[in-house]
Amino acid sequence: MSPQYESAHAEIQRLLEGNRQWAEARRRQDPETFPVLARRHEPPFMVVGCCDARMPMDQLTGTDTGELFLHRNVANQVRLDDPAIAASVEFAVGTLGVRHLIVTGHTACGGVKAALSDEPPPAVAHWVEPIHALAREVSAELEEAGSFSDRADLLAARNVIRQIENLLEMEPVRAAIRDPDRVLLLHGWLFHLETGLIEALELPMDRWRREERLP
């Protein structure tokens, strides 16, 4: 066995051992933890987040196992041509009855930077094309931001709002918002890697109502 293979094997074993320690600690704390989780799936929150490994959503929000229904992809996109996000939203809103839809972007996002770069890899270029198009829409605002890093972070925030607009185009979301017996709230967050803090972005609710996206 080569040293590289041994090192890789040790890495994955560390994860499995970490899981065993975590599960045992949870059982000691509450023997019913896992039986209850196996019987009940009632998360109040759905989070659409980025794949970035620096965004452990449960840790950075202080939530427990079972509270967050997560859908993650590169640059936290809600693409209307993506059946994966469509299925996640349909299940979370229609079946699980989540009360909060949260789109969470972050600073120093590689997907957003790729959308601003000249030649991203082909698959990445295809995936981030909607963000590239958004960058063209807000180009004047981005130019005022200054450095490439600042432009990327501003675009990451604008991308969060655009993805919420895409959520508002999805029928399960529209139906839930218009149902007087349901509560479904929309939130846009930007996680700042430099501080570990979440910024709650101001959403254009009045404009969305004028455009009849919201009742």
Order of helix and strand elements from N to C terminus: HHEHEHEHHHHHHEEH
Order of adjacent strands in the largest pleated sheet = 2-1-3-4-5
- Proportion in helices: 40-55%
Reported by name, the CATH topology of the largest domain is Beta-carbonic Anhydrase, Chain A
CATH class of the largest domain: Alpha Beta
Question: What's the count of strands?
Answer: 5
Spatial shape: globular
Structural class: alpha/beta
Strand content bin: 5-15%
**So, the CATH homologous superfamily of the largest domain?**
Carbonic anhydrase
- For the CA atoms, what is the radius of gyration? 20 Å
In short:
By secondary structure, the chain is of the alpha/beta class. The chain is built from eleven helices and five strands.
Descriptive account of the structure:
The protein is α/β, with parallel strands linked by helices and 215 residues long. It folds into 2 domains: 1-39; 41-210, Carbonic anhydrase (Beta-carbonic Anhydrase, Chain A). Helices cover 54% and strands 14% of the residues. It has helices at 3-29, 33-39, 57-61, 83-96, 110-116, 122-127, 129-137, 139-145, 148-167, 171-178, 205-210; strands at residues 45-50, 68-73, 100-106, 185-192, 197-200. It has a 5-stranded mixed beta sheet. Helix 4 packs parallel to helix 10 and helix 8 (139-145) packs antiparallel against helix 9 (148-167). The radius of gyration is 20 Å and the shape is globular. The mean pLDDT is 96.
How is the topology of this model organized?
Elements: H1 3-29, H2 33-39, E1 45-50, H3 57-61, E2 68-73, H4 83-96, E3 100-106, H5 110-116, H6 122-127, H7 129-137, H8 139-145, H9 148-167, H10 171-178, E4 185-192, E5 197-200, H11 205-210
Parallel strand pairs: 1-2, 1-3, 3-4
Antiparallel strand pairs: 4-5
